[in-house]
Amino acid sequence: MSTSPRPYRLLRNLNAKIASVPMILTALVIFVGGTAWTVFYSFTDSKLLPRLRFVGLDQYERLWSTGRWLTSIENLLIYGVLTLIFSLVIGFLLAVLLDQKIRFEDTFRTIFLYPFALSFIVTGLVWQWILNPEFGVQNVVRSLGFTEFVFDPLYDPDIVIYGVLIAGLWQGTGLIMCLMLAGLRGIDEDIWKAARIDGIPTWKTYIFIIIPMMRPVFVTTLVIIMSGIVKVYDLVVAQTGGGPGNASEVPAKYVYDFMFAAQNLGQGFAASTMMLLSVVIIVVPWAYLEFGGKRRG
């Protein structure tokens, strides 16, 4: 008569499991509980303080009929898509260049990574000065004789989000470069030798061999970039304050303004719930494809 090994598996690493209980409880109470509380009160007419006065989907109807919220979603899409593309492309290309064992590699790596050490507030203020038409890039170029040159993205409602994008790329691309460089340094040198012996061009080696082997690095990088995109707030506040008008509004700023400045918790909760929903729509299919496929395999 055989004994089931399941009870023994449950008792394995018992001390570690007991030690993880406080962390699990904290996650359940603070994160899961806080999320449920936010979603619950998004269906109420809460103002300065939460109150149990249910209004159904009124907060969401008001949210999606507000031009300011629609502008913030449009800006987030533009900022998010371009950040994903340019961060990955520029970060990977910089990593490829540094992977050639160039001289002063440590110096270049430090220079590229240094902006990431700055806070978004500092980055926003720096680029607010750089893009200022009176004493920034525009003024410098005009002083060289190009008097008709115009470059003031932070003062043009149609392109202000691209000015924010420049600052975001300047700060975050260095980290992406370091992640990619670590992935490239983990590739076995024999793979490069075999590719050279077979006469495979360098660009084909990167596209068809190296990049597929770096899939875990790209997945980690995508998660980091996307988490920064969804919660972008302080960069916009420091650089433009959401202006001109509401042209550079983003969802996180919308949530903050309604929850604290406008003292409308119900509307703020509805907006934050939509932000959570956007993350769930992206993360759940990715997690299913990433881990569900492995279990089936």
Classification by helices and strands: mainly alpha
Helix tally equals: 15
CATH class: Mainly Alpha
Q: Which CATH-level-2 architecture? A: Orthogonal Bundle
Give your account of this protein's structure.
By secondary structure, this protein is mainly α. The protein has a single domain (63-296), classed as MetI-like fold (Orthogonal Bundle). The chain contains 15 helices and no strands. The protein has helices at 6-11, 14-19, 21-41, 58-64, 67-98, 105-113, 120-130, 137-143, 160-185, 189-197, 202-213, 215-230, 234-239, 251-261, 265-296. Helix 4 crosses helix 15 (265-296), helix 5 (67-98) runs antiparallel to helix 12 (215-230) and helix 9 (160-185) runs antiparallel to helix 12. The chain starts with 5 loop residues before the first helix and ends with a helix. The model has no long low-confidence stretch (mean pLDDT 88). Belongs to the binding-protein-dependent transport system permease family. One of its GO terms (biological process) is transmembrane transport. Pfam families: BPD_transp_1.
Question: What is the topology?
Answer:
Layout: H1 6-11, H2 14-19, H3 21-41, H4 58-64, H5 67-98, H6 105-113, H7 120-130, H8 137-143, H9 160-185, H10 189-197, H11 202-213, H12 215-230, H13 234-239, H14 251-261, H15 265-296
